[in-house]
Amino acid sequence: MQITDTLARPSAARIPWVTIGVWGGLAILVLVAYLRAPQATTAVLTSTIRQSTPIILGALAGIMCERSGVINIGIEGMMLISAFLGFLFNVWTGDLLLATMGALLVGAAVGAFHAVMSITLKVDQIIAGTVINILAVGLTGYFYQQGLTTRGKLAPVSIPVLADIPIIGPVFFSNPPITYASLILIVVIHVILFRTAWGLRTRAVGEHPAAADTVGIAVNRVRYINVIIGGMLAGLAGGFLTLESVGSFERNMTNGRGFVSLAVMIFGKWTPFGAWGGSLLFGFANALQSQIQFLKNQLPPWLAWIGDLPPQFIGMLPYVLTIAVLAGFVGRARPPAAIGKVYEKE
Amino acid sequence: MTAEPEIVLEARNITKRFPGVVANENVSLKLHRGEVLALLGENGAGKTTLMNILYGLYHQDSGEVLIRGEPVRISSPSESIKRGIGMVHQHFMLVPVFTVAENIILGAETGNGPFLDLKVARQRIRELSRQYHLDVDPDAYVKDLSVGQQQRVEIIKALYRNADILILDEPTAVLTPQETEELFAIIRSLTARGASVIFISHKLKEALAIADRIMVLRRGRVVGETTPREATERSLAEMMVGRSVMLEVEKGEAHPGAPVLTLENVTVLDDRGQQVVNGVSLEVHAGEILGIAGVQGNGQTELVEAITGLRPVHSGRVRINGRDVTNASPRRISETGCAHVPEDRQEDGLVLTYTVADNLVLNTYYTPPFAHGIVRDDRAILDHANRLIERYDVRTPGALTLVSALSGGNKQKVIIARELSREVRLLIAAQPTRGIDVGSIEFIHQQIIAERDRGAAVLLVSAELDEIMALSDRIAVMYHGRIVATLPAASATREELGLLMAGAQPVNAASELATDGHEPVNVQRRGV
């Protein structure tokens, strides 16, 4: 029997015109905007990256879990608990690095909790995630005390030379550490998932656990590790909020970012770079929304009407955009085949 | 006796119990180097359990396993792989969205440190393909391969791990007769190079064709060992079932009447929107059985779903008794007297979480005597169930047992009982005996023929060519969504059907209708 040439091949050989077109168009748009209003454009773009940081970290957390077959809707809660405890570590120790490590460890612990519930105890994974979300709001709300004073937050680090490039410099090379880390993690997780043996096993376990089992892969062990790694990533997202972005804790400060992360993960079809695109979109809408409220009076005459809109409407922008993108442009996203199913040997 | 070749695998007195059943009782087995041992038995005879023990997926309660004379305790698949055992499961253990190479190296990855290196793997795969004539493209996605090709991937997967003991679990269940021949050639080239093969099957012909020795299991025990030279199909069947069985279905002459089911140029799309039924026209007459032969996945499933109202008809007409039922609701179609035995009995045939009694009224629960207005009559439903259980010999603890607790054969009997308990004008039976025991097969075949003799039209879809040939009065062969030929069953041969199923043009038909070479040829050679 001969193998026909019509068999689907990896699309690497084809030139991705659509992707090139979209990015090229965006680049031109940014350039035009920069020439007309350099400061505002740089501000919006810088803010886009910052706003998208917790979203992409949350989405990467989701990708690690779900690629291995475990649904994680508890990312919101994982973020919130880590944000809270990360902040407390900072208050107690005054050491931001230690506090960041603390947030990571707390994330890992909550991840392990999710793994125990959904893998070992075989709790429905949606319910396990919901438990984490509810627990997070309750616990952080109960233990939070007013008046804890912040001991500072992670400061931006400019990378010499690169930071001086117009637009690109301030946007990419003048960020605080967790933001840099998130950008590096996108690449790292992409490589892990698609270029390493561990990634192959992770995806196999999420697609067809019985197949993985019959070649000697310990399905539940792979899942445990991935869920815990996912928890750490969510923990880092929480740490970003209290240790890098705001500098202090507020009640329910994640404000739905964990759920936006999940939306973005689906938007990106469970790939790190796809999810990054979605995060940037959300971050951009957020940045634009806050810039518009800042620059209300400086808008060009033909856009002046935007300044007259009630601020609540402009504040809705990121969420409306998320809904529109998810509803309209995602197409059919195919989740890992074995997602949400407990693996049992017959 | 000449010196026996080395014993590579031996099981001694294996016993394995599951709650309520003894799956294996004192089973012993020896496998010599370079031989094919066929393990015959019905579904539920304990073949798969035994193999899963040898492969390390289960652990025996007592007894021991020896590999090359050395007692071993195989506690996991990775251990059996290390000891040279490879298994090709009945349901392939391949990740559809991975490439062939990715599937093969999974769990035995090569690379630099943690990074995958598919280059080395690809080369090994090519070498193995060449050596054993196992043609596959390492970069093709598994989901794009035919079932036969997927099976080759599974075999390469085992060879890649240096397996020299291969366990093939029902490997021919999904193959055409020609693909089966190719598989046999592969098995022979494997044993010629010193590999040993355990061939699990319930098909007598195949065991006789490929095996050096045949071992028969029944209800978890070894009931006999023989060789193809000493055994016949009949003797093997008797060993398997434990009593004499009729291998041939007895049926009288068909007396076809008026057409009951008429399809005109029916096209149907699959779930992904691909057209998988391409203009099928056919007629099934009262009092005849039309069998649709074809390799799985050539549009049969979608065609049946379209006729029974479970899937939209994209274009064309479906008529039952002259009434247009194209895209009518399943209930309307059912009420025309159409009985449907669906292909997937767990998914579409039964509600597994309901009792036997409730499953027996799934198509009639809303009518008297089972319902009065919106109130159901439990008494009537239970009486009805007890009657059918008796008449169709359904082995169940009771009418109120959950249907999920029954064996495959008895589940199928529940469906047959429900579907035939009404006045049937048209019976559509898809894979009616897949995976069930010989006793139940016999019974179900008798029921289908009885319906025909009562004057019902029967459309039979089956992947088992033997079943099609035994039951049908006419045979239509479906390939790539088309009926490529319709033959009278009396004169059709396995070879001819096998070729048509693989897409070959009908030889005699091509000369008759030479004007139109590549159109599907409908050889309507119905007897007078």
Please tell me about this protein's structure:
The complex is a heterodimer of chains A (346) and B (528). Chain A has helices at 17-36, 38-67, 75-93, 96-120, 125-143, 168-172, 177-195, 197-207, 209-214, 219-245, 257-267, 272-294, 304-308, 311-328; strands at residues 157-158, 174-175. Chain A is mainly alpha-helical. Chain A has a domain at 52-255. In chain A, strands 1-2 form a two-stranded antiparallel ribbon. Chain B has 528 residues and is an alpha/beta fold. Helices cover 32% and strands 26% of the residues of chain B. A six-stranded mixed β-sheet of chain B has the order 6-9-10-3-11-12, with helices on both faces. In chain B, strands 18-21-22-15-23-24 form a six-stranded mixed β-sheet, with helices on both faces. Chain B has a four-stranded antiparallel β-sheet with strand order 2-1-4-5, with helices on one face. Chain B is globular. At the A-B interface, helix 8 and helix 9 of A face helix 2, helix 3, strand 8 and helix 5 of B.
Describe the protein's topology.
The complex is a heterodimer of chains A (346) and B (528).
Chain A: H1 17-36, H2 38-67, H3 75-93, H4 96-120, H5 125-143, E1 157-158, H6 168-172, E2 174-175, H7 177-195, H8 197-207, H9 209-214, H10 219-245, H11 257-267, H12 272-294, H13 304-308, H14 311-328
Antiparallel strand pairs in A: 1-2
Chain B: E1 7-18, E2 21-32, E3 36-40, H1 47-54, E4 62-67, E5 70-72, H2 77-82, E6 85-88, H3 100-105, E7 111-112, E8 115-116, H4 118-132, H5 147-160, E9 165-169, H6 177-192, E10 196-201, H7 204-210, E11 213-218, E12 221-226, H8 233-241, E13 259-269, E14 275-285, E15 289-293, H9 300-307, E16 315-320, E17 323-324, H10 330-335, E18 338-341, H11 345-349, H12 356-359, E19 371-372, E20 375-376, H13 378-391, H14 408-420, E21 426-430, H15 438-454, E22 457-461, H16 465-471, E23 474-479, E24 482-488, H17 494-501, H18 507-512
Parallel strand pairs in B: 3-10, 3-11, 6-9, 9-10, 15-22, 15-23, 18-21, 21-22
Antiparallel strand pairs in B: 1-2, 1-4, 4-5, 7-8, 11-12, 13-14, 13-16, 16-17, 19-20, 23-24
Helix pairs in contact in B: 14-15
